[in-house]
Write a structure and sequence with these properties.
With 128 residues, the chain is mostly helical. It has a domain at 27-81. 47% of the residues lie in helices and 0% in strands. It contains five helices and no strands.
Length: 128
Amino acid sequence: MNSRLPLFAFVLLLAGCDNIATLLADPKVAQREADAKAIGGACRFGLRSIEDCYVLNEKASKSAIFTGWKDMDQYMRDNKVEGIPAKIEKPLTPPPPLEEIIDEPEAKSGTESKTKSKPKATDPHASH
């Protein structure tokens, strides 16, 4: 009974801890989620719609972007903060290539191909 008491006390302490999931979570996952929340907040401050924010940040978690966007929206409303319109936009279509590749036709200025086509050899075993 005495050996179970510390285990029971530990379980009770963990049951009251709301942050146990964040303590055991992978730090890279937590960082990606925090980045996506920051992206959502920046989109809201930049007066972008949530749909535009999703399109411009395809790799980020949509739910985390929405959470950041919503939190920033509430903050801006509570503190009467005006957003600043974003001026740089990601192109929706890929840019044209910088160089155009042009195939030049072979020069026929008097020089012929070194290999001339040979007439087909007749097969002596073939029947006509």
